[in-house]
Amino acid sequence: MELGADAVVSYRNADRADADWVQQVLDATDGKGVSVTFDAVGGKVGSDALKALGVGGTGVIFGSASGEPTMLAGQQLVGQRQSVRGYTLFADVAKFGEYAGELFSAYQAGKLKLLVETYPFADVLTAHRDMESRRTQGKVALIF
Question: Which of 70, 90, 137, 140 is the most buried (most CB within 10 A)?
């Protein structure tokens, strides 16, 4: 919330029955769902992200960090007039400078806040363990 979000949900414990992040999204949007989801994880998280879409929403798939694809049945999109599309920055590599410029401008204007946790290089093992156990937020940087 400190970074400007209207609502925050977590899928950290998505495998627990009492940690239904899709329901948290629906609750936060008065049951309407969201306009867009961005799926870099795939697998169950990616499939669940599509369940959080509202009427006319778009799911954008751009990775599969889980090692599993986002599975869906096309018919699940029909009743809500939803769409799913794939994306890769590499297809727009010529526009990378433009995109980066927009991000840097937003950051300089204070519209974009970044979380960066730093570790001295000697603590690289701790940094890696903290990332694996999800004790970090944002990006992790090693200081040489």
Answer: 70
The count of other CB atoms within 10 Å of the CB of residue 22 is 19
53-61 and 34-39 strand pairing: parallel
Q: For the chain, what are the domain ranges?
A: 1-113, 114-144
pLDDT at 15 over 80: no
Sign, CA dihedral 128-100-85-53, equals positive
The tokens for 24 are 């948290």
Q: Which residues pair with 143 in a beta bridge?
A: 120
What beta strand segments (E) does 17-115 contain? Answer: 34-39, 53-61, 83-86
Amino acid at 115: L
pTM, full prediction: 0.70
Coil/strand/helix, residue 120: strand
pLDDT tens, position by position, 86-132 = 988 777 778 888 888 998 998 899 888 888 999 999 999 999 999 98
Q: What mean pLDDT is reported for the chain?
A: 88
Helices (H) and strands (E) in the chain, counts: 5, 5
Taking domain 1-113, whether its CATH number is 1.10.274.10 is answered by no
